[in-house]
Structures are given as C-alpha cells and as structure tokens.
Amino acid sequence: MSAKKSETEKFMGTPLEKESFEDGSVILTEWEPKLWYSWSTGKVVGKFLSELKAGKIAAIKCDSCKRTLIPPRMFCEICFSELKDWVYVKDTGKVNTFVISKIATDRSPLKEPKIAAVIDIDGSDGGILHMLGEVNPDDVKIGMKVQAVWKSQYERRGEITDIKYFKPIGD
Amino acid sequence: MAPIKNIERKLPFRRKRVAVIGAGLTKFMSRAKETGRELAWEAAKMALDSAGMTLKDIETSTMGTAPDAFDGVHMKGEWLADGCGAFNKPYMRSYVGGGTGVFAPIQGWWHIASGMFDTCLVTCEEKMSSCKPHPQAAFNTIFDNMIERQLGPNLIWIFALEMNRYMHKHGITKEQIALVSVKNKKNAIDHPSAQLGKKITVEQVLKSPVLAWPVQLLDISPASDGAGSVILASEDVAYKYTDNPVWLDGVGWNLDTTYWTNRDLYYPEYVERAAKMAYNMAGIKDPKKEISFAEPYDPFDYKELHHMEGLQLCGKGEAAKLTEEGVTQRDGKMPICPSGGLLGVGNPISAAGLMKICELFWQLRGEAGKRQVPNASVGVAQAWGDLMQVGTVAVMRK
User: Fold this and answer.
1) What ipTM did this prediction achieve?
2) Chain A closest CA to B355's CA: distance in Å?
3) Which of A23, B60, B153, B320 has its CA 20 to 30 A from that of B174?
4) C-beta atoms of A142 and B1 within 8 A
C-alpha cells in the first residue's frame, strides 16, 4: 500500500472504553414520548377487520390480473385498477414458511418459543403473517395444512388477533 | 399471478462517465466515542485526503443514513450535514433501509452523470450503539401497522422466514450456509476497519445460540458504529486529481411491494431487476464471465447466497454449491465479499453498504493489500433492505 494510503487512515474512529461511562463521554436520556396513533384503516382494511370480527376472512379480486388478494387492498399494485369485488375465502391454508422465535419484539428472550408463519390462504393468491399453535415446534413443516383457531364471538374486536393462531389439520 | 414485464431502461441523454477518485472508511466498532457527525467527518476527511482534495474542490454532497429512531434525533440528514461537507452546498440525504449504502452513491452518480456537477462527496454514517436496549426495536414500525404489528414481530423474523423458504426450495442445508459466515469473518481479519474478523468453524456457527430458527447468532452481522465516504468526479475533471480513477459505469435500483407475504421469498426478483439495469448500463452481457469479483449484501450468511443468485452470478439455488467448492474464496474463480462483508467487517447499516463501494474502489486500484484479489477488472456491489424489497446495485471497472 502506498504511503499516501496510511496518511489517509488517520481518522479511523475511537472505541469507547467501559470507564468512559463515568467520565462524561456518555450521557443517558430516557424519553417516553406521550404519543398514540389513531389510524384510520382505510377503505378496504377496515372491512377486512370487521369481517374478522364476524369470523370470516374476506379477500378482494383483481379481474385483470386474475388474482384474489389477501391482505385486501383498494387498488392493484400491478395494473393500478380500483378493486371492489370482495369474496370470502376459507380459513384454511398452507404454511409457506415459518420461524421458531426465541426472542420478543425488543430482542429480549422468550420463555416459550413463538412460531410465526406466512400462511397461504386457500382460495387466494397470497399469504398473511400469523402465528401457529397446538403444534410442537419440531413438527412444523413447510407445506403443512393449517386452519384458523378463532377467539369466541364475544372476544373478537375486529383485529388480526381475532384469529388466535392457525393449527395443523392433517391431510 | 400475472407476469410483470421486465422494463429495459434507456437514458435519453448523453451522460457523462462518472469516476470514483477517493475513499475513506472508519473502523467499524460496537461503540465509538465519536458522535455521528464526527464519524461522518472522519470518513469524509480521509476520502478527501486520499484524493489530495479539500472541501473547496467539492461541488455537492449526498449522504445516506438509516432511521432517525437509531439516534433519537429528528432530521438526521440535516444534523449530520456539516460532517458530510455539505455546508452551503446542494445536499441530499436518501434512505432506502439497508439498501442506502449503495443508493447514496447512485444518487451521487446522477448528480455527475447528468452534467449538473463535476464533483460529489458521498458519505454514509451510522451509529447504532445509542439506541437501547437494542437497535432492533427501532425497526418494529416497519411491519404493517394494521395487521402485522399486533402479532409482536421482531425484525429477525423476516430473515428467518426468508432463509427457511430459500433452504426449503433448493434443499440447502444450514451447514452450507454457515460456510459463508466462516469465509467472511476470516476475510475480515485482513481489513483494517473490521470489527469481527476471526477464524471460526461451521460447528461454532451451528452451536451458537438460536435467536429465531433457522437464524442463529453467528449467522448474523453485528450492530456497529461507523462511517464511509467516496468522492465521485466527472470524466472531465477526474484526471486532474488522479491517474488511477475507477469508473462507476452501471447503477440500478428496484423496489418490490410491501405486501411481502404475497411473494415467494426464495428469490429476490427486485435484485435481479436492479442488477439487469446496472449491467445493461455498463454494457455487461454475461455477468458470470465478465464480473471478476463481487460484494453482495451479507447482513446474514444466507443473504450472500440469495444475492449472488439475484445478481445473476450463478443460477437459482447454485450459490451454496459454489461456496462449498471454494469458488467464492478470495483466491477462487469468483471471489465474493473479499472485504469480509457485513458478517466480518461489521454492519453500521448505511456505512456497511458504502464499505462495499470502498472495497470495489481499493480492489480495482490494486490497493486492497492482503485482501487483494487477482485480476480484479470489473466488480459489482449490492445492498438490500426496506421490507425485504429493495435492491441497489453498482458496477465499477478500472
């Protein structure tokens, strides 16, 4: 390497030592912003969620692309046409891929692993992210048939968690 | 699903050829004493010094940095601007998640190629150590706010889901994938900026703690602090500063939909499109033969394989076999991540992508020291990010 190169390696950064936490090199500010978000669910997702409250999975069709879409959307991102044609699809599907998570949202360890999966919903051209339950982590397979396990109608609130999880149903 | 037509892109104007004439890179580390602005200045200063330039020679500045949530500072681009040499200049920050580190130089490229400017300082900075308890939590708002976040996802889930699908589709094993981590951490031993260069074994990877199966601790790159900088110049002025410019001859970028659960995650089609755009611009017809080495984005070990396929450096499902055969080693036929990649050098998000541009620059100038690959004539660097949906690609030649 040329001498010029070493000259240009003068400012490579400085690692912080443990002691630095006591000498003013680091300051800690805890900040919990008092904010909350009140999202309007839009012209389409709101209907999807209210159908979940009724115990049904609703999808929307794009006739020109021949797709039945879940999650439903107001317009097709491929042909850009407006979508209005709702259909109900089954609450069964297949595991497209899955993860056995030992960490929570903030990366803290979980006591019991959670299994999340992309589930291709029968009768649609898409999948959704959801959880798997009533299954041993070692027994989960890609391609496995699953069915939604719903909360009771009194507990459902029009949220994705109105489905508790999907469970295996055999072939 | 209806097929999506591949769009061939043509630039309607007579564009100027864009050279890279200088580079600077700080050491990547888990926690730097410097503030983000100081890190940015260090990288920018080293880049200027390497080209024998001062800030007076720079006409415009572009920069890349990841979410403001990492720093807890609003308008990070403006906050970092002075360190990027942007004072009193036309300045632009871009952010496409992990794809940012290759996108910021692309942004610099069009500033020069269009004829608007003759010199551009491109800086990428990231300081992840400020965010507690872990910067991963700052990513959670990436998931859909109405139907996904309620399930309590973690960012690593999307990698685990993609890795599992990729392994399943091609029958690839975790042992094969672990070889990437072993190779890159070993390569990084020779990089003066590396955070995690060391010799590890496949067995150590497979025995490391499981975070979200199939992802284990040693499958992942570390969170880091660091900054990198390159200087771009038009063909009209490049030789004023150096006899040895490297040419940024092709750029490409492409975005897929955020409806990520509707795609088959086994293959990154958007990376293919970005690569084809860049190859087309650089006049590369057969990347397998014409590219002499590559720096695909490797925040996780399987991603290197995934991206080699997206970059058309091998067929779908073939990357693991090439890795096993040693083809991707530094002395192999197609060296992949000779720098040590994100797995070895470290992953200060946007700076990690720019590190790959720096590596292409040093390799093509023959200045990579112990990392030097033989016969480096054309290199490709790529970064990836957002909700598994963006590919950013740069082709450079000497």
Assistant:
1) 0.91
2) 13
3) B153
4) no
